[in-house]
Amino acid sequence: MNNSFFLVIIFFYTVSGPNQAIAQTDKIKLIPTDKNTFQIVNTTQCPILANVVSPTFDYNKDKPYLKTDLAIEPKQSEPFPLDKNASAVKLVYQWGRKYTDSPEIRDYALPVKGTFKIDTGFSEKSHKGAGKYAADILLPIGTKIFAARSGVVVELSEEFPDNGLPLLKYIKRANFVKICHADGTIGNYYHLKQNGVIVNVGDKIKQGGVIAESGNSGFSAAAHLHFHVAIPLDAMQINTIPFTFNGKAPREGVRVSDNYTWWDRLMSIFE
pTM for the complete prediction? Predict the structure, then answer.
């Protein structure tokens, strides 16, 4: 299944008007310290990579205000100077910690119980470019989804119906859960069931804990779970990174199981 959400531009919070009025959430804040300086405050339990852009910012044409993205650790803040000629700005960020080199490949628990075959794995045919390292597991709608690794829930969506289609207009209609791991990588679980997310933002989840039910929301040709692990490339894009499920790279047609039987091990010889 092609999941074209790997270029993620997040325009969340706006500072605008002659008095620089601020609209913000209680998680990531823009706070003025004087006329020309602001603080980006990260109140969450996950690092972020942030920058500031104009309201009409075009990723392919324009440059952010800050030459270097700000890496802001959990419960920390960073100052940035505001262009005195700017009447409005927007904050953009990605969850996670930026790495100079790719993090160590880690083994993840299978996020479902049972034995399944990977429908689409690490491939340039369906998962392309920055989204190459991802796995799609075909599942009936309503299958329980478990955390593949311990972490903190940083973002979720469960509002969209399970009427997914492989059409561009459905790209932003996938329900999902994002979990921040201790090393600043982000586990992403997509195409979840409408109103099927069990966790809340800020919840600390242990590996194997139930987080949601599978669905067929968003850009999808069939009901399935899409899973990938991400790190920020910059404040507006992510990169997926390699991982394994119980010691196996998720390739198309590979059998994966949360509890291998002798039969599973025998069949894996022929894959």
Answer: 0.84
